[in-house]
Amino acid sequence: MKLVFCLLICFQSIISYAQTKKLPEKTVPTNEAPPVQAPLNETLPETTVVPSENIALVDAPHKHSTKVLRGLSQYTGSLHLSPFSTWLPMKYGLALGAVLNENWTIEGEYTQKTISASVSSVDFGEVKDKRYGIQSRWYPGSNSFHFIMGLYKSEFSAEVGNSILDNIGTMPSSTLIKIESIGPQLGLANRWQWTNGIHFGVDWFVMYVPLFNQKIDDAILDSVNNSDDQDDLDKAIAVISKIPQFDVLKLQLGYSF
């Protein structure tokens, strides 16, 4: 009996211990890695902040470039000198124009020269060579290089020289030969501009093609008796009225605003 009683007491103690003991909770494994914290003494690398205005100017032209300054201008004017020009060298004149945008400029131009000279081996007295033109300067996205395109009118007049007049019996009412021509002009040039508005340019090569002879006054040929003089005058008139004229290295100095 005592043995049975002792066993009952031991069994009751085991049950009470089992009720008070908590089993560990089960965890479900996952594929997510736990967050990794950086050590307190480790610093992140510094990042460089680029100002937005610098990013915008990466592909933009320089603010003082000829192209930008030309686009900011509205009007332009210049004086020019043509040391190598047909039919008379050292022509001089002026041009006034409007700047439409950085790619296009339109100008009106006047050039002239008066001199005593021989043209096509003919002795002339006073020779006047004038040229009027309306031209556009096209900059095809470039800074200073451009093309010249336009229309021109030339007025050539010359007094017949004494070597021919001495062979004329009756002096005519007019001893002038006048030739007026109209046609297109084409050329290549550069023009540079500075922040103060001054610009300098070089028309490397400009060609003037006389497509239409508006006027040829050669009445004096009727008074020339010498056949050689007549042939020389005919050749001179043909050369002046039909052969294209040229300007080479025409220099310009002007102001744009």
Topology overview:
Elements: H1 2-20, H2 52-56, H3 66-72, E1 75-82, E2 84-85, E3 91-101, E4 104-119, E5 122-138, E6 145-160, H4 162-165, E7 176-193, E8 198-208, E9 212-217, H5 227-242, E10 245-256
Antiparallel strand pairs: 1-3, 1-10, 2-10, 3-4, 4-5, 5-6, 6-7, 7-8, 7-9, 8-10
Commentary on this structure:
There is one protein chain. The protein has 257 residues and is of the alpha+beta class. It is 20% helix and 46% strand. It contains 5 helices and 10 strands; from the N terminus they run H-H-H-E-E-E-E-E-E-H-E-E-E-H-E. It has an 8-stranded antiparallel beta barrel. A hairpin with a 6-residue loop joins strand 5 and strand 6. The protein is elongated.
Q: What is the count of β-strands?
A: 10
**Succession of helices and strands:** HHHEEEEEEHEEEHE
What's the total helix number?
Answer: 5
Mean residue pLDDT: 81
The value of Rg in angstroms is 46 Å
* Helix and strand composition category: alpha+beta
Query: Regions with pLDDT < 50 over 5+ consecutive residues?
Result: 55-59
Q: Regarding quaternary structure, how should these chains be classified?
A: single chain
- Shape estimate: elongated
Strand content: over 45%
Q: What is the terminal separation in angstroms?
A: 129 Å
* Biggest sheet architecture: 8 strands, antiparallel, barrel
For the largest beta sheet, what order do the strands appear in spatially? 1-3-4-5-6-7-8-10
